[in-house]
Amino acid sequence: MGFKLTAPLWTAEFIFHGTGNSGSVPNIECLTATLGDHDQPCRTCHAALTPEGRKNRRRNTGAIIRLRRQNGTEMTVVIDVGKNFRESALEWFTKYGLRKIDAVLLTHAHADAVNGLDDLRVEHGRIFPIPNTTHNSTPASSHLNTPSSNLLPPIHFGERKPSDGLPYFSMGFVLVDIVYISDVSHIPDYTWDWILAVKNMQYTALIVDCLRIKPHISHFGLAQAVATARKLGAQRTYMVGFSHEILHDDWERLGKYFQNSRTITPSHGDTNHTITKAVEDIPKEPSVWIRPAYDGLRFLWDSNGVIQDLNSEFNDNELG
Ligand SMILES: [Zn+2]
Ligand SMILES: [Zn+2]
């Protein structure tokens, strides 16, 4: 008796090339502010400038997926190329040995998702922009070549005020067995039906929008991100799209709180007890593995659904 181990048909690497909001972090306004006697400088933006606070430095949200098949072929898909993509590529392509981009998926047609397209023109001839309106599998996503590889129906992204009529749609993606939803304020039932029908086993990971603690007209806040993580029940959930409201370390504390249902104490310098208040109206249970992603974070997964972090801080068997 025992488990039968089969060699994975493929392994894939997931890299967060950016994890910030459209303005990105740090915010120049915070760094150049003239403070009065009682004003506090922005902790996150100032921390972002220090080596130990580098996880607070967040470029426009996006990802890189490098898929390696058993036969040795490789393909690289990039999700979103926003305003800071060139800067991100300079850092992560050189650090992680990336060179060729086979396809680019776009979640929505805002500067924070598409303004880097022009920089791709120089080096990469073959790009498949995905229009926001398509519901179908595209050449780019079908290249991932698994039955579950497909595009999500558009996810409601309430950019416009309701009185303006139609909502603004942003795309989410199911990439093999990872669900990627980076810009969202509401996931309609038909999208949930689709996500849950694609895979009747546990998803390996969910990447989900979380701009700040409170919800925003066009983005999830903490409560929505946690509720989505619980509803999908993926092995792991990584939050992305952060503003400068709280420190990366505070997002970590919030993530651990929702995994372990323990008490939470404000971090040093958090005189407003921001994170203690943040969890007040959110149910403690059920437990969920949820953490903030940060720029440059990488994890590996394979066709057996095994997930492994390439950055040391999560390699502590927290999966349980
Ligand atoms: Zn700031
Ligand atoms: Zn946007």
From TrEMBL:
Pfam families: Lactamase_B_2
Metallo-beta-lactamase domain boundaries: 77-130
Matching InterPro entries: Metallo-B-lactamas (IPR001279), RibonucZ/Hydroxyglut_hydro (IPR036866)
SUPFAM superfamilies attached to this UniProt entry: Metallo-hydrolase/oxidoreductase
Name this protein carries in UniProt: Metallo-beta-lactamase domain-containing protein
Superkingdom as given in the UniProt entry: Eukaryota
PANTHER family hit by this protein: HYDROLASE C777.06C-RELATED, HYDROLASE C777.06C-RELATED-RELATED
